[in-house]
Amino acid sequence: MEREDRQITGQILDCIRYTKAAAPLLHMIPNDVTAGFCADAISAVGGRPLMAVAKEEMREIVSSADGLTVNLGQPSEEKYLACKAALTAAAESGIFVTLDPVGAGASEYRRQMIKKLLEVPWSGVVKGNEAEVHTILTGCLTHTGVDSPDHFETGQNAEAFLRAIRAQGRSIILAVTGQPDTIFWLSDRDDRLRQIRISHSRRRPFVLVGTGCVAGALLGTFLAAEHMRVQEKKESGQETDPAFCTEQAVIAAAAALSLVAYGGEQQAGQDGQEGQGREAVQEKQAGQEGRAGERRQVDHARPGGQIGQVRQSRQEGRAEREEQNKQYKRDTERFGKVCSGYGSYKAGVLNILSCLDEREYTKYLERHLSYDRKIPAGAGGSFLERPEAKPEEQGDRE
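Predicted structure:
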């Protein structure tokens, strides 16, 4: 693993730990489809979710929050006014923003709404899938719904978009989910376009609705914690240069996208093992039932069969079923929790986020995260100023 990759991995770990300790308050304007999933994910990484939707309270809510995530799913005129009020308040207070342009290319109404919200002078991250970001960068509708079944190349258009934003005196980075996930930003040290890529390897057993929204929620939570870090530096009399703030946003984005990918792949692996266990349990149970049925058939076929024999057979059947149930419980404990569908898969992902195994997560980052070296490194110093963090021993974590 290259030095800068290790440095980025260390800073991701530091960001996650700091968020757990800081417990930032994130105001998220959600959509009803994924609000519960997002709230649970925010809590899992240490944040405190607040999901106000009334435009009348946006200024007051945002002024008391540490960060803001705006999810544009299920758009309406009322929601547009609430989002605009929230983004304006965030720009005035200086907190970092995450904008999730859900289904940006699904309709002209959505495209125009997002275009207007991007004109509000906030800074932070635009997080979207390839189709959504393609619409933002080119103005072209994709009509692909809220997901991205097709691949869209974003590199060249990303640089033009980011430079136009910088010319306005603002700082925005792009976090694009896909295969791979890609983070684009302009370096404040040398004004070059930089990229981080996070690849994926394991196919998920379920297409879980809402993982993109969860990525935006986590990103907003990490950005909120980094805003708290900036405020601490200011209160202690330390100066914060633009490069530090941009790098914080990059690390927050890398933490969010990699955690969602890691959680899904880890749970997919566990479900694969548990699924094999379930098949073994069911096969064993079916065999037992088959043998019990054979014995009952023999009993009923005996000459002179009487009611007592039937009762005995039923009692034997109940005893066998009770023993089968006990054995099934023992086997499921041995093989682990049996995956029963979307609900348990989602719960498993949240559990992985909440009880993060840092060593396994670090190994995942070593395999899947890469800093694009095709773009020349600047002479203005290393990627980040903060020291490298090391994975904690699991026994040392509270």
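Summary: The chain is about 55% helix and 10% strand.
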